[in-house]
Amino acid sequence: MNRIFALSTTLVLISWFPLVADYSGHEKVGALVDELVSEYSFDRATLMSVFKEIKHKPDIIEIMDRPAETKPWFQYRNIFIQRKRVNDGVKFIRNHRDDLDRAFDEYEVPAHIIAAVIGIETNYGGNMGSYRVMDALATLGLDYPRREKLFRRELKQFFVLACEERIKPFDADDACDRKLNNLSSGQGRSIEDLIGSYAGAMGYGQFIPSSYRHFAIDFDKDGMRDIWSNISDAIGSVANYFAEHNWTKDGLIMESVEIDTSQGSPAVHANLTLEEFSTTVEEWQALGIKSSAPSTQKAALFAYKLDDKESPTLQYMLGFENFYSITRYNPSRLYARAVFELATEIQKKM
Q1: pLDDT tens per residue, range 201-211
Q2: What CA–CA distances, in Å, run from 270 to 252, 259, 288, 314?
Q3: Predicted model pTM
Q4: 318: how many CB neighbours lie within 10 A of its CB?
Q5: Which residues are known to be catalytic?
Q6: How far apart are CA 162 and CA 49, in angstroms?
Q7: Most CB atoms within 10 A, among 84, 187, 294, 304?
């Protein structure tokens, strides 16, 4: 039923959006351009020339309506926790040991965590996406009402990012406000050449534009933040992201727990994020959760489906503060556990 609805939505959008049209005449573009000109001193004509090249991608909307994060855990796990991905993670660490060691020294994020994130996000750089970032963000930011607010903001951030990095056609000094950080020459890159996911995420670590602007770093000190082709920058940027989101060195991530049902079931609290529900292990133990973690450690309870039976088997896990840090990268409890498990398997294999 959801697929039928998604398909019908896509067909409506296809019929509404002229196949030969570009975004320069879209009814919502004018206001966005006004903001960029007013807030960042962009050149209006240059912006409009870019919008004239942006294409609407209706298939992106269909993909957005069936994300992997809606799958139950046992299906989601099978996508990412595979022997080959574990082995490739080991190779990734061995091939980039110097950068990973330096990332740990500077940001205290271990190699197996960074490898797991990059492994899940892009299969260690093997799949960084196939959509032009500007097409993906415009499609979602201007023609996808359910998430329009988020993606319109990211589309705006994408233009600012292109300006900061001096990416064509924003590489000329007068193309935007000189007050922006001019970190590089852009090395001849064009905004039309920037490729990413269907959601506009970019590079090895799949940073959306706002994350790129605030957390990507020039880790190898060559004067350019490049998370597409510079693995050193990509590793440092992932480490910096976690450090900026309160990653704790040697901190706990997850623990499988049993429930003493004689104390009453705490299952009603499961799957709430750490933002919505956070309490100490000691308080969880009082509710019948059997945990070996320190009593003062804060945690949230999550339930994961292990099969597709009519009454599925559930596995309860406590997620600790470093689990919360992973959810700042991607808010899905499934994603956070996948990072944890892949990292654990890579660490064992090492």
Answers
A1: 999 999 999 99
A2: 18, 12, 13, 11
A3: 0.89
A4: 23
A5: 121
A6: 14
A7: 304
Alpha-carbon distances of 163 from 79, 237, 303, rounded to whole Å:
37, 19, 44
Q: What local confidence, expressed as pLDDT, does residue 5 receive? A: 36
Q: Which 3 state secondary structure label does DSSP give 346?
A: helix
Read off the pLDDT of residues 19-73 as tens digits, 9 standing for 90 and up: 446 899 999 999 999 999 999 999 999 999 999 999 999 999 999 988 777 899 9
For residue 223, what pLDDT is reported?
Answer: 87
DSSP state of 190: B
3-state SS, residue 300: strand
Nearest to 288 by CA among 259, 268, 314: 259
Q: What confidence score (pLDDT) does residue 114 get?
A: 98
SS3 labels along 192-255? HHCEECCCCCECCCCECHHHHHHHCCCCCCCCCCCCCCCHHHHHHHHHHHHHHCCCCCCCCCEE
Q: Is the pLDDT of residue 9 over 50?
A: no
- Considering only CA atoms, which of 279, 308, 312 is closest in space to residue 296? 279
3-state class of 37 per DSSP?
helix
Amino acid 115 reads A
List the one residue out of 56, 64, 55, 52 whose CA is nearest residue 14. Answer: 56
Task: Give the whole-angstrom CA distance, residue 313 versus residue 305.
Answer: 6
What are the backbone dihedrals phi and psi of residue 211, each rounded to the nearest 5 degrees, phi first? Answer: -70, -40
Using DSSP bridges, classify how beta strands 254-259 and 279-280 pair: parallel, antiparallel or unpaired: unpaired
Query: What are the pLDDT digits (tens) for 215-255?
Result: 999 999 998 899 999 999 999 999 999 999 999 999 999 99
Which amino acid belongs to residue 27? E
